[in-house]
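During the reporting period the student researcher (J.K.) took over the structure-prediction task from the postdoctoral fellow and processed the backlog of single-chain submissions. One of the processed entries is reproduced below for the supervisory committee.
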Amino acid sequence: MLSLAQFKEEVTKELHSILQYWMLHVTDHQQGGFYGKIDRDDIVYPNALKGSVLNSRICWSFAAAYNQTQDARYLHFAKRAYDYIVEHFIDPTYGGVYWTVTASGEPADTKKQTYAIAFAVYGLSEYYVASGDAAAKQHAIDLYRCITEHAAEPVHGGYLEAFARNWSDLADMRLSAKDANERKTMNTHLHVLEAFANLYRIWPGPALKQQIIELIQIFSQHIVHPYTHHLQLFFSDEWESRSSLISYGHDIEAAWLIQEAAEIINDEGLLKEIRARSLQIANAAAEALDTDGGLWYEFDPADNHWVREKHWWPQAEAMVGFFNAWQITSDEKFLKNATASWNFIQDFLIDTHKGEWIWGVYENYHIIAQEDKAGLWKCPYHNSRACLEIMRRII
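J.K. obtained the following structure tokens:
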């Protein structure tokens, strides 16, 4: 099995490779910020829409990399993303962030997706740590307040999915075309929790701490299935589950992110409970591990249907989620799972010729060629974060 020292050395090298790709190929020198789309063949689409989630994730990735490595180049690119978010994505009239802007930076899809606002909070909070820019901290706080004031569901708790630009109701609240049109989702709550926890690092206080505790309790009481320990994905206002689909990437991502939130607020009683829960979720996610170390994408027990694809981001999250489980238990099976995930990434996902990672592979290992190298959903966040987490965790 891969030694810990070699594991750290390899992911450190990969972190710099990932960020190098974004600096060299995704920077939009003509219209500002970063390109909205680069396809599998590394062809740039200069007129593609630019997404708020992508730009917030770029901001976080470079800021987090700077905070850990002190490489000044990364702070420069984090600032580039931050400046673009403030100038083009934050809505000066109604607050929140637009979903997309045009290639030249004009508002395009102006809906307010809670998920997107959460990622802006996440990225701007990290940028404040890197830069010390008080304006970045204030923007993060203002966006947090947009979520708590406009998106909170007052009766049953949690947060609603989406709104029109002026915070009025939307008929279609879906985050993406593949999602169910429900008012509450696991995915949004996971990343609101992630964002609030990162904000707490720079702006601790009792109100925010209570919001984080309530989100963790929502996962324990409503989102994590009481018997299978998989995450349930879509819900009514009353937290009635509206889907049987299992997303293994979200399982293993949540297995460490929920625990991290409990660690950040330093609630020992809650943390003890969540560590046990993390292990249950990690073991549930391991049901989808293949013999090659890769993690299958989805399974729906309602019709016994597998999506036998191995996408880039679940593999990145598997590295961290299983490593975290090993740190809790010292059980070697979890460490083997984490290093096997990394081996799979090296064998099948890293584009050794052009850089970055491909979207994924099918069961027969053919490349999923129709998906982007950079785009609304393809970003440097999952893979750079996985590298940073492994670097941080191996002393």
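The committee noted the following: The CA atoms of residues 239 and 253 lie 21 Å apart.
J.K. will present the remaining backlog at the next meeting.
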